[in-house]
Every structure is written in C-alpha cells, then in structure tokens.
Amino acid sequence: MGALAQTGWYRGKKSSQYNQHCIGTTFFVCGRPTTKTAREKKTMDLIEDLQWRGAINQQTDAEGLKAEIAKHPVSIYVGTDPTGDSLHVGHLIPFMMLKRFQEAGHHPVMLIGGGTGSIGDPSGRNSERVLQSMDQVRANQEKLTAQLVKLFGTEDFQVVNNYDWLSKISILDFLRDYGKLFSINNMLNKEVVASRLETGISFTEFTYQILQSVDFLHLYKHNDVQVQMGGADQWGNITAGVDLIHRVEGPEAKVFGLTIPLMLKADGTKFGKSAGGAVWLDPKKTTPYEFYQFWLNQDDRDVVKYLKYFTFLSHERIDELAQAVQEAPEKREAQRTLAQEVTKFVHGAAAVTTAEKISQALFSGDLRELTADEITQGFKDVPSVDVPAGQTNIVEFLVDLTHIEPSRRQAREDVKNGAIYVNGERQQSLDFTVDTEAAFSGHFVIIRKGKKKYTLVKVQEA
C-alpha cells in the first residue's frame, strides 16, 4: 500500500487494497468518488470512443479488459527505447491512446528502455540495429523523459527505466528463471522473428521479446500494471508478456494487451515522414512552425482520420470538419484545426500563435512584424548566405555580397522592375541602401526575388 499511497494511485487489483478504498459500490477515481454505474458508463464511452476513432487493432481479451476497467482504474504502459535523443510524431500514435486512458481516469506508465535500448528491438526492421554506447543511451533517456513529462504532466504518471531491473539479472538467472519458460517454436512463429529468418537475426535481437516480457511481469508485480499497449508490430512481444505472467502468476492473473493499427497515408506510405525526414517533438530539431506546417499540409483523404486519432475534439466537431472537407476543401479548415490541436498538445498554445503568425507573414509577404526567433523558425529551410554587418548599395548587396543576382545588369533590371523585396518591402530605387541593422534585431536581412524566391541573409558580427 505504501508505494500506491505515495503515487496516489488506487487501483484495487488485489482485494485487500481494493477494499481499503471502496465502500459498497462507491469507487475512488483520481481521488473523486463515483458510482459503479458511472464508472461502467465511462468505460463504455472510452472503448466506444476508441473504436469510433479507429484506434484499436488487436486485443488479447477484449471483453475481459472492458470488464476490468469498468471495476476500477487500471495502470497501462507503453514502452519506447531511447534509440535517439528525441521522440517523433510516430511515437504520438500510442501516446495519444495512453493520454485518452489518462483522461478517463486510468494511470499511464511510460517505460523507457534503458536496458532493451542497448540491445535493439527487431520489430519493424529487416536488419540489425547499430548498438549504442551506454552513455548515449542514458543521455537519450534523460531527453525523452523530459519530453514525456511535458506531454503527460507529473500527476498520475510514471516514467520507469527497465535498466533498473534488467541490469540486475545475471545470465544464469535469465536462462533458468525466464529462458525455461519460452518455447523456441513459439518464438519463431512470432511475426517479429519470422519476418527476419530469411535475412537473419542475431541471438541478441532474438531474445528481445523475452526481455520485453520480463518488463511486463516486473511492472505487473511492482507497479500494478495490468495492460500493455503498443503498435501493431509489437503484438508478438505483447502476447509473449501476457503468456509469461500467466505462467508465473497463474492463469487467473488479470493482464491484457492491445495494439494500435499501423497508420498509413492515403498514398500507401508510412505516416510520420516529411520531405526533410522525421518530424521530431524536440523544437530544436523540428521547429514548432515546421511541426504546424506538417499537419497543415496533410492530404484531404487523411485529415479526418488524423483528427479522430490525434485530437481530443468531440465526435460532433470532427463530423463538422469532415463535412467541410467535402464541401469546401480549398478552405482547409480541417487541416488548420488539426495543426492547431496537435501543435498545442505538443508545444503549447503560444507555439500555435507563433506558427500562424509566421504562416500569415509568409503568405502576405509582410515580414516586418516577425521577430528574429520567428525568422529562424520560418526560414529554416530557405537558402542562406552570410554577410558582414553594415550598409551597402542594393545592387552591390545583391551581386557582390549575396550572389543572389548573377550580374549588375540583371540586378538593376530586377530592382527597377519591382522584383526585389528587402525585409518584405519592394525596393525599386537603384540608390537604396541595405542596412543590416534595420530589422530583426540586426540578425537577418530577408531578400525576396519575384513571388516566392527567398534568401535568408545572416548578418555576422564584426
């Protein structure tokens, strides 16, 4: 009871704990009493909502899970290995499910694989992972933990590291206590292994599903976790964990697994990639403006599906937006709402305001109200050139300093024709002087040639 009291989690998996927090048919959900009928209704609402959103793929025991969460709040975990120093939008797929359980009064546990991350998950891969140093794994773990706390808060949320228990298991204990409980035949039939048999799989990655199963067993025994959730490619690992708990704790143990559908775009490609690669949750790797633009640019064929999955909007509001896609797709109201909601969830409301301010400035060409930080975000992928601080005639600036124009003749012609904009303002005088201190705190000069060809001029300090 001590650990549970410290975290404020009241689950009642064991009858003695359960009775301490229940009187008659009254249950305590997140510290608030509610009737059993209300909890059952909330459970039905949650399951029905997840099904409507297309968020459930496979379950080990659908009716059993529905009955269990109708009785009391459950702890549910998702795992991720610290293979990089940031999470990306692909991770949001299980995280949004976890958040929905949290919103419904259940208790999310996030496992960061400090132990398994040093080995490598073969799921969804056709080749071996490159092993990372333990120092790199630990550094990544710290950064991922900070991102998770930002998404889930600190109340009724735990982050655990499987290095804490896996590192204490000797090779002999691993073979005797766990290896004996796994059939090679069953392991070979799991898709995660079977898909690699032709190309080859090392013994290290072959044992990954055992380690993940040990994680589930440990969390069941020590953190009262009853549910493991993951992507569709995790089904074999999840069911192996359920089987291990039943062998160790008995078939009556109330544990469940569920997976989330593989998310593909309408064109059949994998969700989560942009032209520049992965879309990261770290604002230093993918700026909030870029993040916003990723969602804003989603295909009409995908946007309703993403609204259901990645937002907490009501069914009625999503239905309205689906109708808007059909009747006025050119307005992109659904995409704009999607971008606003997901950006707010990951980066906060202020980031939405900034992203929309940058978008409007780029659309209108009026850049004068942007800050230096907003210029950095909005022009991250724009061609850039470095110049020294100072004042220079516009023709010399375009030809000698920035090489935007190939010759003085062409520069003069483009200036006189009104094709050159400096910091959002058209300049048609050949006598105009470009002053690097005139805008954006003296850090940048923005040159636009024609309608859309921008160059970011970075001013170097003397």
UniProtKB/TrEMBL annotation:
Give any GO molecular function from the UniProt entry: protein homodimerization activity
Q: Which residues form a coiled coil?
A: none
- Sequence motif 'HIGH' region, residues: 82-91
Query: SUPFAM superfamilies per the record?
Result: Alpha-L RNA-binding motif, Nucleotidylyl transferase
What the entry lists under InterPro entries is as follows: aa-tRNA-synth_I_CS, aa-tRNA-synth_Ic, Rossmann-like_a/b/a_fold, S4_RNA-bd, S4_RNA-bd_sf, SYY-like_C, Tyr-tRNA-ligase, Tyr-tRNA-ligase_bac-type
Provide the E.C. number(s) assigned to this enzyme. 6.1.1.1
| UniProt motif ('KMSKS' region) ranges | 270-274
- Subcellular location, principal: cytoplasm
- Which PROSITE patterns does this UniProt record tie to the protein? AA_TRNA_LIGASE_I, S4
Q: What class of enzyme is it?
A: ligase
- Location of this chain's protein in the cell: Cytoplasm
Q: Which GO cellular component terms, listed alphabetically, does the Swiss-Prot or TrEMBL entry include?
A: cytosol
CDD domains, per the entry: S4, TyrRS_core
Keywords tagged on the record? Aminoacyl-tRNA synthetase, ATP-binding, Cytoplasm, Ligase, Nucleotide-binding, Protein biosynthesis, RNA-binding
What region holds the RNA-binding S4 domain? 393-461
Q: Name one Pfam family in it.
A: tRNA-synt_1b
Residues given in the record as L-tyrosine binding sites: 77, 208, 212
One GO BP:
tyrosyl-tRNA aminoacylation
Question: Catalytic activity, per the record?
Answer: tRNA(Tyr) + L-tyrosine + ATP = L-tyrosyl-tRNA(Tyr) + AMP + diphosphate + H(+)
Role: Catalyzes the attachment of tyrosine to tRNA(Tyr) in a two-step reaction: tyrosine is first activated by ATP to form Tyr-AMP and then transferred to the acceptor end of tRNA(Tyr).
Return the NCBIfam families for the record. tyrS
Family membership, please give it.
Answer: Belongs to the class-I aminoacyl-tRNA synthetase family. TyrS type 1 subfamily.
PANTHER family from the xrefs? TYROSINE--TRNA LIGASE, MITOCHONDRIAL, TYROSYL-TRNA SYNTHETASE
Subunit annotation: Homodimer.
- The name of this protein is Tyrosine--tRNA ligase
**Organism (species):** Schleiferilactobacillus perolens DSM 12744
In the record, what lineage is assigned to the organism producing the protein? Bacteria, Bacillati, Bacillota, Bacilli, Lactobacillales
Q: Which gene encodes it?
A: tyrS
